[in-house]
Specification:
five-stranded mixed beta sheet; three-stranded antiparallel beta sheet; 2 helices; 8 strands
Length: about 170
C-alpha cells in the first residue's frame, strides 16, 4: 500500500509541476503594438525575448534602440503604402535576430496616433505573408516574481504531500 501512496503523490506532484511550468513558445520574442497602424502613426516595439538591448529597423521608420526589459516608440512614415505588410527586423545584443510583421491600415482608423513629423522617402516591397497566429495580446510577458512564487507553491505542495504520505506510513508500522 505504501508504494501506491508514494506513486500517487509523485504523479500528482509531477502533474502540478508540468501544468504550472511556462512553455518556451508562450513568450513572443518580439512585440509590435498595435500590429496595424495608419501611415504617420506610432507603434511601440519591445523585445521580451532579449536579455539585453535590442535594435529594431524597417523601411518605414528609423532604427530604434529598445532598452533591456523595456520598450521604444517609432513613428511610421507618412508615405507607407496602405494595406501593405512590412517586416520589422530585430537584433538582440547577445541573442538571436528575428522579425515581426507590421500592417499598414487600408483605411484611416478613428484612433489614429498620427503625429506630423519630417519623414524620409523609402521604397519597400512587401512580400505577402501568411496569417500569424499567437496569443492575441492576452499575455503581456512573464514576471520573474510570479514565476518564482508559482514554483515555490508547487515545491511546497509536493513537499507537503510527501511528508503526509511518509508520516502516515510511519504511524501504521507494527
Amino acid at each position: 500500500m505504501r508504494a501506491i501512496g508514494a506513486a500517487s503523490a509523485a504523479l500528482l506532484g509531477a502533474a502540478a509541476l508540468a501544468l504550472t511550468a511556462p512553455t518556451a513558445a508562450a513568450v513572443d520574442p518580439f512585440v509590435i503594438s498595435p500590429s496595424t497602424v495608419d501611415p504617420g502613426g506610432r507603434v511601440t516595439l519591445s523585445a521580451p525575448g532579449c536579455a539585453g538591448t535590442a535594435m529594431a529597423s524597417s523601411g518605414i521608420f528609423d532604427t530604434v534602440t529598445i532598452p533591456a526589459g523595456g520598450a521604444a516608440t517609432a513613428t511610421v512614415d507618412f508615405d507607407a503604402r496602405r494595406g501593405a505588410v512590412y517586416t520589422v527586423s530585430f537584433t538582440c545584443a547577445g541573442g538571436a535576430p528575428g522579425t515581426a510583421q507590421l500592417t499598414i491600415a487600408r483605411a484611416p482608423t478613428t484612433s489614429s496616433t498620427a503625429v506630423p513629423t519630417v519623414t524620409r522617402t523609402a521604397t519597400v516591397t512587401a512580400a505577402p505573408s501568411g496569417v500569424r497566429g499567437g496569443l492575441g495580446g492576452s499575455v503581456g510577458g512573464w514576471n520573474a516574481g510570479e514565476l518564482a512564487a508559482g514554483t515555490a507553491l508547487v515545491v511546497a505542495a509536493a513537499t507537503g504531500a510527501i511528508y503526509m504520505v511518509r508520516r502516515r506510513a510511519e504511524n501504521h508500522r507494527h
